[in-house]
Amino acid sequence: MVSKEKKAELVVKFGRNAKDTGYLPVQIAILTEDIESLKEHFAVNKKDLHSMRGFIAKVNHRKALLNHLKDENYNLYLETIKALNIRK
Fold first, then answer.
1. Cβ-count burial of 77 within 10 angstroms (0-12 exposed, 13-18 middle, 19+ buried)?
2. What is the pLDDT tens value at each position of the chain, 88 positions in all?
3. Which of 9, 41, 44 is nearest to 26 (CA)?
4. Whole-angstrom distance, CA of residue 81 vs CA of residue 18
5. Separation CA 1–CA 35 (nearest Å)
6. Are 18 and 11 in contact (CB under 8 A)?
7. What family does this chain come from, according to its entry (predicted)?
8. Which numeric CATH code is attached to 4-84?
9. CA dihedral 28, 29, 35, 41 (to 10 degrees)
């Protein structure tokens, strides 16, 4: 789970203003941070299949948001995946 402080930092970095949590790059950044923290969890807890289901749902949601952003604004999509270091 992403802390409030980290989430606020991501909103400021990727958003248009400090309260712009619905902006696609902000949502993608928050999901990416959550996914990265869950990767560390699964490195230790390999058999936690219950959490794996939620992890896969987050990855699929991020993928859908990235595809939507790519269709809407390709330049912003490229900037976002470069800033978050996401392979695509």
1. buried
2. 889 999 999 999 999 998 999 999 999 999 999 999 999 999 999 999 999 999 999 999 999 999 999 999 999 999 999 999 998 6
3. 9
4. 21
5. 9
6. yes
7. Belongs to the universal ribosomal protein uS15 family.
8. 1.10.287.10
9. -160
Structure tokens belonging to residue 63? 């993928």
Closest C-alpha to 4, from 18, 16, 25:
18
DSSP 3: -
Domain map of the chain by residue range?
4-84
Cα 16 to Cα 12, 20, 23, 62, distances in angstroms: 7, 6, 8, 20
Q: How far apart are CA 70 and CA 75, in angstroms?
A: 8
Cα angle 22, 86, 44; round to 5: 100
Q: Which 8-state DSSP code applies to residue 73? A: -
Amino acid in position 25: P
